[in-house]
Amino acid sequence: MRTALVIGTGLIGTSAALALAGRGVTVHLVDHDAAQARTAAALGAGTDAPPEGRVDLAVVAVPPAHVAATLAEVIKADAARGYLDVASVKGGPRRELEATGTDLSAYIGSHPMSGKERSGPLAASADLFEGRPWVLTPTRDTDTEVLNLALELVALCRAVPVVMDADAHDRAVALVSHTPQLVSSMVAARLREADETAVRLCGQGIRDVTRIAASDPRMWVDILSANPGPVADVLAGVASDLEETVRSLRSLQADDAAERSAGAAGIEDVLRRGNAGRARVPGKHGAAPASYETVAVLISDQPGELARIFADAGRVGVNIEDVRIEHATGQQAGVVQLMVEPSAAPVLSASLRERGWALRQ
């Protein structure tokens, strides 16, 4: 791939353009907002000048509702050898494109499973897709050359290609992406009118659950409007669990011991099913989930403290598999949780204590 046209210079389009440009591809940027395309160009994502002729690959990075019309237009203009979109929904836009009578042999649907709470070109980064799944949804009509161009794009972005059926993809993202966004927003919405004393008690748990609730509502309305059925199906299952959980919690208030016992069993059931589901989430490098020990260390909010604790772990040959930071409300301190292999936890704990770190049990 020597040339590419990126249509839509938001987070995903600009990030893909930055990755391509950084690896020697000449990238042309187009956006309905010319100022946004100029911003992306100023960041090094390419040029906002139009291509002089046909490019190798056109990447359509517009909201799902506009994907089909945009693809039909650029395919009709013979703008590229191959065409690809990066919308988070695949089945609907493909059917809309088919309805226009457009020849789909040069088109392949795709969805990079990566993003941020922030949007726009200023949130973009060339490494956004590194190590992340990038779904490709070819059909029997997809030319091999176009599939190869898509695979080259994924490789240049250092992502991991995953081939799926378009409708299967939409059902999957309804479960692992779209429903979590709504549930996160619903939990965060409870905080809107909460008493200030309650909000000040927020800890890492509520921060984890509500992190993605900071996402752009307009963007998510576009996404959910393109995939409402599968998301509603998943939410119906969540609603059923919620209803049963509410009944179980009410039972815990009953005078009858048997009813209280049944309520406790209901709560335990949903928690254990949650354990089993969480255990299926892929772990490091996409491998099966691993069981790590957590070494919790009190840390001050000072420059260089994280670097120092990582260096101290490295001195005893312990690899930190994952890390989380829990901030203390109203204090310049917190707890850094270092996840390590179980056999390494005692070694790391002893070493950190020797070096003056305060560990939290």
Automatic annotation (TrEMBL):
It is an enzyme of class 1 (oxidoreductase). Its EC number is 1.3.1.12. Gene3D superfamilies: 6-phosphogluconate dehydrogenase C-terminal like domain (1.10.3660.10), NAD(P)-binding Rossmann-like Domain (3.40.50.720). Pathway: Amino-acid biosynthesis; L-tyrosine biosynthesis; (4-hydroxyphenyl)pyruvate from prephenate (NAD(+) route): step 1/1. SUPFAM superfamilies: 6-phosphogluconate dehydrogenase C-terminal domain-like (SSF48179), NAD(P)-binding Rossmann-fold domains (SSF51735). It catalyses: prephenate + NAD(+) = 3-(4-hydroxyphenyl)pyruvate + CO2 + NADH. Residues 1-19 form the signal peptide. GO terms for molecular function: prephenate dehydrogenase (NAD+) activity. It comes from the Bacteria. The keyword NAD applies. Residues 2-283 form the Prephenate/arogenate dehydrogenase domain. Keywords: Amino-acid biosynthesis, Aromatic amino acid biosynthesis, NAD, Oxidoreductase, Signal, Tyrosine biosynthesis. The keyword Oxidoreductase applies. Pfam families: PDH_C (PF20463), PDH_N (PF02153). Residues 294-361 form the ACT domain. Belongs to the prephenate/arogenate dehydrogenase family. NCBIfam families: PRK06545.2-1, PRK06545.2-3, PRK06545.2-4. PANTHER family: PREPHENATE DEHYDROGENASE, PREPHENATE DEHYDROGENASE [NADP(+)]. This is Prephenate dehydrogenase. It comes from Streptomyces zhihengii.
